[in-house]
Amino acid sequence: MMASRNRPEETVARVDRLTMAFGDTVVQRDLDFEIVPGTIFAIMGPSGCGKSTLLRHMVGLHEPAAGRVFLGGENFWGLEQHDRNRLLQQAGVLFQGGALWSSMTVAENVALPLELFTDRSPELIADQVAFKLALVGLAGASDVYPAALSGGMRKRAGLARALAMDPRVLFLDEPSAGLDPLSARRLDTLILRLRATLGVTVVMVTHELESLFAIADDSLYLDPETKTAIARGAPRDLQKQSEHDQVREFLNTRL
């Protein structure tokens, strides 16, 4: 088990002795780590190791088989549902495919969380939507439907919706998946700019080494053989200095 280095109140999110399982099949066990404010934290590892499953546990979509998930210092799965909903409003999520409603325009997609979870006037919501679309470079796409967007634009539209509620932390599931190299680099640059502009913390699942090295301050490696986390640290440091061969091999693949 990897020891946590910070107290819960100093962290945006913390995982404590977490075991993830589907029935009797354990995906990962004894995960123990924290994410401090302002960092870009990457969850990495080979395909099938449980990266996206861990993200879903952290955003309230899967309940742990054992252990705890803290958001903002509060034990998420120990709360009543209305308090869970309150915590989730402090988190934004970009799913791998964007998860935009195809029958809604880009602006309507971004407005939806504000309409559901706030009592802001339509005018204030429209102002917030315009601001968030401008932040991600989609100021001219408010009336466009998702089907008319390129892959990179759909990712940015999903990111604008994830930012709608001014979250403390952004959870990104394979943000560069399916993008060409240029679009992927532009998305990386955008994530860095949002962190600098908004002070948001980013938790990112990825297997894209270029993104890992370009933007991640900290990372966690999930090992599919031992079914637990075996390395923690900046990707560049782990690439050279990890005591585990599989970690160094993973981080040196395709370079």
TrEMBL record:
Pfam families: ABC_tran. PROSITE patterns: ABC_TRANSPORTER_1, ABC_TRANSPORTER_2. It comes from the Bacteria. Residues 13-249 form the ABC transporter domain. The keyword Lipoprotein does not apply. Keywords: ATP-binding, Nucleotide-binding, Transport. Gene3D superfamilies: P-loop containing nucleotide triphosphate hydrolases. SUPFAM superfamilies: P-loop containing nucleoside triphosphate hydrolases. One of its GO terms (molecular function) is ATP hydrolysis activity. InterPro entries: AAA+_ATPase, ABC_transporter-like_ATP-bd, ABC_transporter-like_CS, P-loop_NTPase. This is Phospholipid/cholesterol/gamma-HCH transport system ATP-binding protein.
